[in-house]
Design a protein that fits this description.
mainly beta, Porin, 9 strands, about 15% helix, elongated
Length: about 190
């Protein structure tokens, strides 16, 4: 009976001794600045590759306020050019020029993976940005929701991939709600 009682008292404490490694990818109260490439795909006759800059200040480990900007080198795609050549009419879709948003980013989970003898620390994140999409004709209100991953390459360097849906309201022949896919791939530094 004493052996059973001793085993019952020792077993929970033995199981509770789990070794937890401290978090290596620390974000709390730090600024992360990055730049990279993007592509706005709206199915609107325009090809819109671009360059993006972003800055995020992490209020804690999980939440950040971010400012994001992008500039697009948009041109009329082959199908749009064909419409212009055959009819002389230009599509009423607005040509994207730039994007400026401010928003919130939240870390959903923290993880690490062993790769080729090293460990890659990363966060899966999601967020929402609000701002304006500047087109060749107007400033349009815009909103972007995204999911992404941010990975630590060294003490200061990191990479980020966000997959977003960008929406805006454009005044064409009538008010039109537009939506497009906006992936961003950036590299940056923690300040």
């Amino acid at each position: 009976m004493k052996a059973l009682l001793a085993a019952a008292l020792i077993a929970p404490s033995a199981l509770a001794q789990v070794r937890v490694e401290p978090r290596v990818f620390v974000k709390a109260h730090r600024v992360f600045v990055s730049g990279g490439v993007t592509w706005l795909e709206r199915g609107d006759y325009y090809n819109s590759p671009g360059a993006a800059l972003s800055a995020a200040y992490y209020l804690g480990e999980d939440d950040a306020v971010e400012l994001r900007s992008a500039i697009f080198a948009s041109w009329l795609g082959a199908s749009g050019e064909q419409v212009v050549r055959s009819t002389g009419l230009v599509p009423d879709a607005h040509k994207p020029v730039s994007l400026l948003t401010v928003g919130w980013r939240h870390s959903l989970t923290y993880g690490k993976v062993a790769l080729a003898g090293s460990i890659l620390h990363f966060d899966l994140q999601g967020g929402v940005d609000l701002g304006t999409l500047v087109t060749d004709r107007a400033l349009t209100p815009a909103a972007c929701g995204f999911l992404g991953v941010i990975a630590r390459f060294s003490d200061r360097l990191y990479g980020q991939l966000d997959l977003g849906i960008l929406t805006s309201i454009e005044q064409r022949s009538t008010s039109v709600f537009t939506a497009g896919f906006l992936p961003l791939l950036t590299l940056g530094a923690r300040l």
